[in-house]
Structures are given as structure tokens and as C-alpha cells.
Amino acid sequence: MNTFNLLIDEPINSGVLNKFVKKSRLHNENVTFEELVSRDILNLKSDQLPIGSILGLKKINEETEYFFKASPCFFSLQRDFYRFEKNFDNQLDEKTLTYICDLLNNNFSKNAFKFIVNDKFLLLKTNLNTDVKCFFPEQLNAFANKNFLPQGADAMFWHQLINEIQMCLFDTDFNKKRIREGLPPINTIWFSGGGKLPSNLSIVHRKKIVTNSFLVKQMSLVDSSLMILPFEAVAPTNPISHANFYFDLRVMSEQRELILNYIEHCFSRNKLKQLQLKIIRENSCLVARTNWFSFINFSKQKIFHEFINEN
Asked: For residue 26, which phi and psi values (nearest 5 degrees)?
């Protein structure tokens, strides 16, 4: 069975996805994209995900250091709390990301505490105040009591740091420019995925992988035996069997159409016998599973965006 894991940040108006949802067995899981790929590929549990350390790797078998993922985010102010609205990981251009990194280092950097950029991700390298549990931004709105701030012995350090960074970002020229252009401001840096890779970590995933996700590609630096195929391998004339696909569809609009067309072409032409779609938005994953016979003959009434909104 081929599994397509698709990360989105808003409902996609897609005839292809509508067709699959109508003709699949459905259920929902509470899982973020980071949790899903860490579980699938590295067999890591949700309470031990050193995502920052994976994103910070530069070469195979590198001795890892303690990193946090430092996500540029937009939070909206509600009556008595802040609500997470958007995570800009992997979505900012190099100039903007470098500006934010330099701004944070100029105001908050100290010994053993430094912000860096790797690809399109902002990371914090540190060995200070690491006795803390942080949640991924996409998990925050699921807290009914809004108690989503960092927890643990060093929690107050991170509460203060987040608050000071918010004040630092509030009146910056680049945020004023974003607002004039109708873009949401980047008014928070949210820390998550803190940790250091275990020394005995190894790949448990043995299928081929096709991906455009930098996080998934970085996992091949943990174990070079991970079989990653380039995004260009996605072609209707060359269906890939016995593979898993991990795609970030939040920013790659041209890749999005290619991927969705590939799925439909291969399946409707009976080139793939069984298919599982996992569509991840924030902390929710819609799982749709079908086979070729059901795809041709069976029909349901609800369409894709209705299931996304319900879950």
C-alpha cells in the first residue's frame, strides 16, 4: 500500500481530494506532521521529539547539539488570551528569515545561546534552561484551558523570553511593511521540538520515500540507509510502488497540482491497487483509505473540506 502524507494549513478546493474522501474509509487521528514523520521513520514517541536537533544537522553522523525549532508565528489577541493563527516555518524568503535571525541575536544572544538559519527554518542552539516541555504551534488551539505555555522547571525563563521577543517584534519595520501589504505580522517566535538526538537512533522505515519536506530529508542524515527519492520522481508515467510520500503542500502551489494529479492518474488507471491518504492540518490528521475497486464503484456524500472542518 502506498501512503501519501499531505501537510496543509487551509482546506484545499480539490476535485481529486473530494473524490478520494467520497470513496474511502475514514477516521481521524490527533497528530502533527512532526509527530507523524518521527513516528513513521524514526520510531520516536511523541514526548521525545528532538525536531530542532534533526533540522540542525549538517552532515551524516554529525555529533548533535541541543536545538529548539524557533517558529516565526502569527498569534491573534482574543479577549483574554492569544490564539495561534499561522506558522511560517519553511515559508519565509531568505532575506526575511535572516533579518529575524539577526534581530533576535542582536537582542537576545549570549554564550551558548544563538539563533541560526538552516534552509528555511529558524533554530535556537543552546544548552541553557533546557528542563522544559514545549508544544508544537499546531497543538496550541487544542488546549481548552489555554494552558499551552512551556512547562517544567525552566518554564519561567521561556515565558519571559517569548514575551520579550513579542515586544521586540511588535514595532519592527518589516512587520509594518507586512501589514501594509495585507500580510499577517510575525509577532511571536514559538519554541518547540527541543532536544538532542539519542546516540543509538536509527531508521526503522524501510520503504522508499518521496518528499519535498526538509525535515524528512534531514532524517537521512541520521541514517544514510534511508531511501529518499527526489520530488522529480513524481510522474504519472512512472508510478512508484511500495513507497511512502511526505509532502508539504502549504507553499508549493505548482507542486501541489502535480502531486494531486499524480495520485489521481496512478490510481484511476489501476497502477496503484491500494492507497492511503493522510491529510494533516495543525493537530488533526484525516486518514482516508481505499482500494481501486471501491474507488470506481463506491460513493459517499460529504466532500473533503467538510471533513477537514469537522475534524
From this structure: -120, 145
